[in-house]
Amino acid sequence: MIARGKTNWLRFMPTVSKMLAVVLTAVSVLTVSPGAGYADPAVPEITSATAEVSSNNAAVTVTFNTYAQPAGSLSDLMDGIQIERSGSEQWVDLAADSAGNDISMNGEGALVITLGTALTGTDNSIQIAAGAVMNTEERLSANVLTLSSIAAHDITAPVVTGSRSNDGSWLRVFFDEDFSLNVPDGATGEQAAAFLKSRLSIAGDGEHFVPFTNNEGSAYQNNARELYLNYNNNMKIISGLNTVIRIASGTLKDAAGNLNAEMNLHVSPPIIQSVAVSNANHDVVVTFNKEVLNNTSSDDNLKSNIYLVRTVSGQEKSLKALVAQDTVSIESNKLSIHFAEALSGTESQISINGGALTDLNGNVQEQRTISGFLETAVGGVDPNPADTTMPAYLYSSVSDDYQNITFVFNEEIFNAKGSDSKFLEDVQWYDPYRNQWLYTLPSDVTFTFSGTKLILHFPEPLTGYQYYYQINPGHFMDAAGNVLTGYAATNWIYPQNPAAGVSYKGGYFSGDGRFLSLSFNTNNALTNQTLVDGVSHLNEYITISTDHGVTYSALDPLDTVSLYGSQISIIFYNAKQQGSVKVKVAPGVLSDLYDSKRNSAVEATVAYNTPELTGYFYSNTESELAFTDNVAWREHVGKVTVYDRNIGQYRTLNASEYVLSEGKLTLARGIFTAGTRYTVTVDAEGYSSKYLEGGAYKSSEVFYMTAPVVTADNGITATIRLFNNAYAEEVNGNQTILFELFDGNAPVSIVAANLKLSTGTYSANFNVSDVVVNPNYSVKAYVVSRYGNDPANLGLNLATVKTPLELDLAILAANKNNNND
Fold first, then answer.
1. Sign of CA dihedral 313, 315, 321, 326
2. Whether residue 676 is found in the same domain as residue 732
3. Is the Cβ–Cβ distance between 605 and 567 less than 8 Å?
4. Cα–Cα separations (whole angstroms), residue 749 to 521, 743, 781
5. What CATH number corresponds to the domain at position 516?
6. What is the percentage of the chain residues whose pLDDT exceeds 90?
7. Of these four, 177, 347, 452, 798, which has the most CB atoms within 10 Å of its CB?
8. In this predicted structure, what is the pLDDT of residue 143?
9. For residue 805, what are the contacts with CB-CB under 8 A and spacing of at least 6?
10. For residue 752, is it within any domain?
């Protein structure tokens, strides 16, 4: 190899000897004459060169400042060439760089370097050793020639580098270079958004694609390298574990004019499938549905994003950060955690901050996720510190100049996120100028922790119509390291309150498809301006679409339309089976009391027509949630999520933890802990998410009842008092109450009623003629989870029998707890 910056004179000795002979001859005769060996001073030496990259980046042509030729063989010349590729910061011999590399000299005296591996990037360099080339007068290049900043041509379209989502509600897709939408010059933002929507389709199951435009939502270029997508009406962009976003070819264009080919983006983030404990409660393995990678800067950073969730007492739960002696590691789809102190108890879980992990496609879940319960062996050491009480959020206030918002807590607080930039993330706020919810505070918002207060400072006063700020769990901790698992949120902030016309506010579509209500933005009753001789013609100004707005039709003459207060209510004669409908209301048909303001035109999608779920959450057995079967909805269900309301965290159930069958969703045992409040969410593509909220109970503790009191008036009448212990204000489940008449030990008759049971008195009458002469009659009562064609299969016993006094005491205790809440 030729040393950089020096001439390898030995290699080129024949040429040097020839030149030396010429010089000696000239000296001996003291004259110089043209002829062999003459060096024409008009021919410049080789002192510089330029590089030109071929259109496919597979060749570089080096043009010297004068005609050049190899000093030796081409093989010798190749030995004197090195390359430093963009981003490598290391020189490599050209022959060693790629097996396909080769060189040649063209007819213009330029060096052509053919590359087996094409160039990339903008900072490539080529170095040619001194003495490796010579001019036509055979004078060798005296110095190393270095050609820097050789840029490859951009010949590739934008490539996706990953995505971020928040339980599938919205999606941000990131690319490796700046791009623009391939729309004509001068296209408006509205036209660009419509173009992008028309080029997108989504498959919740990864196979069956639905056009984005089938549902209302937003799709736009969020910045130079990002697309943002979301659906309205609480529909999920990511509705399953294998969601694919398809971007049609020719949608995106980079600065070089490269257009994308059709792109199928697998955007579902990794989901926890199981959790296992071993090594005498010291080791925990969290298994995901796909391979995961550390998305933080180091193992220590990853460790700071993982918590042990424990039940401290009753319903109170705490987050415990990993300590210095704990370790974490990732291998394939498994996250392994070693606890220096052994775990204990049966109600512990692993919590992982949003953004901590990514899959191989770069998909990141922004929200926190939580595992199932750890099944620890008996024994172990409680790892909780003595102080397990987390700080409590009290209230917020806004400065008179609307430039500061102060959040006040009950004790001194600190930043639990570790950095200022992380603290600004996962803060949900409403931007009135964009008319949308955002999930990260702007980088120019500053904040100060001062004792028990957090002060958010805005560079300019808030001047929009309305604002709302919600700082999500995991942002605040006290001096002992206890992390706040709840929210810190303001009320709505109104820097100004301009007068507004009568405009559409929102709608509701019932679970059985019979009721539709449209609300308007006024607290006062509206006036129907379609009355003619006291008869309303409001139904004539309303049209409905059940095909996503492709066609609209008038209401059925048998549909009932009424105006109640500030909302229109429609009762459909024939129930609608779709998950959503589009509705239009003509302008000017409603007004305020004095007809000073009339409504603007309404064109909106109203969703939420999902089956109603009924049932309870059981801690000791599987939980059955019933619904009126809707085959279309059931076939589109992509995932079921459980939200622990005590700590504000989600976990997505894996396929072994639930079964969806005709009219029934069965959740496996072990998902719920008694005394904890939960929300179960069922997501189906094309449908609004369905929620069921409630506390978890032992099955026999859902109701309390007294033993039947039997009287002999007009046959036999049995009466019980019943108390719904599963929060008296909620009646979630369909249950059956049974009264069974016995003659001695022989059953005689059963009276059963399938009801939504609440607290109250229930009775049944048995028509028997010999009650006066037969003293052997008795009645037993039960509350069971099912009663059908098989009397032997009554499901679960849902009630515990108590004395009248015990029942009264239970009701008083429940009322006291509810009043305290």
1. positive
2. no
3. no
4. 56, 9, 12
5. 2.60.40.1220
6. 54
7. 798
8. 94
9. none
10. yes
Give the residue-averaged pLDDT of 721-736. Answer: 70
> At residue 453, what is the residue type?
K
Write out the two tokens for 772.
């006066």
- Look-up: residue for tokens 């995505």? 163
Rounded Cα gap, residues 816 and 526, in angstroms: 40
Question: What is the layout of strands, in order, in the sheet containing 217-223?
Answer: 217-223, 226-231, 170-175, 160-165, 363-365, 357-359, 292-294
pLDDT tens column, 774-787: 889 999 988 887 77
Per-residue confidence (pLDDT) for residue 24, from 0 to 100: 31
Q: Which residues contact 702 (CB under 8 A, 6 or more apart)?
A: 616, 724, 725, 726, 733, 783, 798, 799
Distances (CA, A) of 358 to 582, 597, 642: 37, 52, 21
Contact predicate 66/44, CB 8 Å: yes
On the question of pLDDT at 5 being above 50, the answer is no
Pairing of strands 124-128, 292-294: unpaired
Does a structural domain hold residue 398?
A: yes
Alpha-carbon span 463 to 514, nearest angstrom: 42
DSSP label at residue 121 = S
Classify the phi-psi angles of 375: left when phi > 0, otherwise alpha if psi is within -120 to 50, otherwise beta.
Answer: beta
Number of domains making up the chain: 7
What's the farthest any 2 CA atoms get from each other in the chain? Answer: 159
Residue type for 167, please? D
Residue-number span of the structural domain to which 795 is assigned:
700-820
Which tokens go with 371?
């595992």
Q: How far apart are CA 574 and CA 557, in angstroms?
A: 11
What are 553-575's pLDDT values in tens digits? 999 999 999 998 889 999 999 88
CA distances from 527 to 37, 500, 588, 759, 814 (A): 109, 16, 11, 40, 43
With H, G, I as helix, E, B as strand and everything else as coil, classify residue 516: strand
- Within this chain, do residues 113 and 37 fall inside the same structural domain, yes or no? yes
- CA separation for the pair 238, 171 (Å, rounded): 8
Rounded to an integer, what is the distance from CA 293 to the centroid of its chain? Answer: 17
Q: What is the CA radius of gyration of the chain?
A: 38
Cβ atoms of residues 677 and 645 within 8 Å: yes
Token reading at 409: 């807590």
Last residue of a domain, one of 130, 150, 170: 150
**Contact call for residues 105 and 70 (beta carbons, < 8 A):** yes
Residue 270 dihedral angles phi and psi, to the nearest 5°: -65, 145
